[in-house]
Amino acid sequence: MSNKNILSLLPGVILIGCAQQQLVQADKAYDRMAYANAACRYEKALAQINDRAVALRAADSYRQLNNPAKAVDWYAFAERISPLNGTDATHYGRALLGMNRPGEAAAMLERVLIEQPEDPVIRELGMAIADRDAFFVDTTLYTITPVRIQGVLSAFCAVPYGNSILFAAEKAQQAGLHNPWNGASFLDLYTADAGAEVSAQPLPGEVNGRFHDGPAVLSADGSTMYFTRSDYYRFRLNKDENSTSHLMLYRAEKQHDGSWGKVSSFAYNGYDFSAGHAALSADGSRLYYVSDMPGGLGGTDIYVCERTAEGWGMPRNLGPTVNTSANEMFPVLRNDTLYFSSNGHRSLGGLDIFRSTLSDGEWSRPENLNYPVNTVHDDFGFVLLQDGRSGYLSSNRSGLDGIYRFTTNDPTLLLHATLLDEEDGSPMAGAEVRLLEPSLPEPIQLFTDSDGSVTLPLTLDKVYEVMASKDGVFTESRKVSTEGQRTSRVYEEEFRMRRVVVDKPIVIENIYYDYDRWDIRPDAAVELDHIARLFIDNPSMSFELGSHTDSRASDTYNLLLSDARAKSAVDYLVRMGVPAERLTARGYGERNLVNGCRDGVDCSEEEHQANRRTEFKVTRITEAISETR
């Protein structure tokens, strides 16, 4: 080979050599979880080589750094070389969700589900994408604003601390010791004025060491603190046989000068698993925390310890209602309601905030707090203040972990009532609609517009009576309950207003009797309940209940049977509260058949049953129909 040809190969050889050198350094950084360094070096190597495995490590590095945009780029790079599967495909799907690309995420997760059809977490993610609109059912329930804290790069998990807030935070990289994971400082605990944009102040005392410290929770009296800390001794992190340094839970006591000291290790820390993210019940009898200890459901689970005379009892896993095979983290307790974050339950993507309530020793199915509390990013650290209507949450929705203040808003509840003429379906304008509720000093009264409708405001956790009336028609009422309603809603009620004609029979639909019987069947009772309501709503009217039989048996027997049926219906209505003096019972026997099933005509049971009916009619009106109750 000529010198000229040899020289032409040198640039390629040099570039490959540089790429290999970058890879060696990148792998070393990746293995010690120095993901910021690793990601940068993998990218430099990939500028020279086309390697799927390297691209996946670059993608995973950016995933660990909570940079979904970069992660998606490198997962897509690897996917173009060869389709992803398993864990890589799952991470790619989650990263796509983090970029708000649910359609592409669904396709990737569907691929994983074909490989792992029994994986409940992947199923939940898939169903969350399919029913994505459910997360946005009411976006007005929370108002969320960022808390500006000077002097820190990121901050999270704020809890009240007197008139201030206590939180975990990191600063930008400085000379000396720094966190290899992302290049910033290690976490420390800080305080800041909750109502102003001021600089963060390190928490005084022995709690902030050389490595990670935070987040923390305070006892109700503010004298005891449980906080998360790296497992280290003096100047060195302790690591397990896999070179992993775990987190541990510690306790500290407030000293007379306001600093924190007497730091002690939690009894159930371990050297080969992590424990942290403590939460306390208001009375201090229960301590909740997060751990990936052996025997859990997978990922990190939430555990609880009960206080005993000797200290904290053995930790108990909260079980599969709360915990999944993915990660449950950042528990916060408010009375018997547990707020926590999870990427295993149905979510928008990343960590979403859920709540579950303890009742009779069982946790309720976790409820997603939905948007805007939750986003496609990581949302966690949900803390309610004493007023129960405001608090703090943490999120990396802006790119870095930050603290946000939230206020809760009541849902907007409205009643939209429409009144139509039963005969022709036309709107009934000028009709009166009244809204009654025990706590209201006076009923709310409106009249329908030309389209026959009115709209009235409702409030939470009330049971209303809605009455619709107009001269010449029957007054009708309905019950409308807003109890337990957590999202904004318009309650739609349509009234088919029936005109009053004295002595005109009106068939009560579905009031039928078994052959040769006069007792009220359960299906008939439902309809008679509606009639009772109608009669009570129209106190100025008196009514006749008329009963009819089919043609079988003798005329005399049928007359007696129908009379018994009519009296049975009247007795039922009286038991439901209709005054007996306004009711008359009359049996018509087989005189008024609705079809041709006379004596000697062969008919089906259904045709005979149509004749076994009850009707009502107005027999007397003593005062104006529209008079108020």
Report on this model:
- The chain is of the alpha+beta class and 629 residues long.
- A hairpin with a 2-residue loop joins strand 2 and strand 3.
- It is 24% helix and 31% strand.
- It starts with a helix and ends in an 8-residue tail after the last strand.
- It contains ten helices and 35 strands.
- Strands 12, 13, 14, 15 and 16 form a five-stranded antiparallel sheet that branches. Strands 17, 18, 19, 20 and 21 form a five-stranded antiparallel sheet that branches. The protein has a four-stranded antiparallel sheet with strand order 1-24-23-22, with no helix packed on it.
- It folds into four domains: 14-136, Serine Threonine Protein Phosphatase 5, Tetratricopeptide repeat (Alpha Horseshoe), CATH 1.25.40; 142-408, Glycosyl hydrolase domain, family 43 (Tachylectin-2, Chain A), CATH 2.115.10.20; 413-497, Carboxypeptidase-like, regulatory domain (Immunoglobulin-like), CATH 2.60.40; 506-621, 60s Ribosomal Protein L30, Chain: A (2-Layer Sandwich).
Secondary structure layout:
Blueprint: H1 3-31, H2 35-46, H3 52-64, H4 68-81, H5 86-98, H6 102-115, H7 120-130, E1 142-146, E2 154-161, E3 164-170, E4 188-193, E5 201-202, E6 213-218, E7 224-230, E8 232-233, E9 236-237, E10 247-254, E11 260-265, E12 275-280, E13 286-291, E14 301-308, E15 311-312, E16 316-317, E17 328-334, E18 337-342, E19 352-359, E20 362-363, E21 367-368, E22 379-384, E23 390-395, E24 402-408, E25 413-421, E26 432-436, E27 444-447, E28 453-458, E29 463-469, E30 476-481, E31 489-497, E32 506-507, H8 522-537, E33 541-547, H9 555-575, E34 583-587, H10 605-611, E35 614-621
Parallel strand pairs: 25-31, 33-34
Antiparallel strand pairs: 1-24, 2-3, 3-4, 4-5, 6-7, 7-10, 8-9, 10-11, 12-13, 13-14, 14-15, 14-16, 17-18, 18-19, 19-20, 19-21, 22-23, 23-24, 25-28, 26-27, 26-29, 29-30, 32-35, 33-35
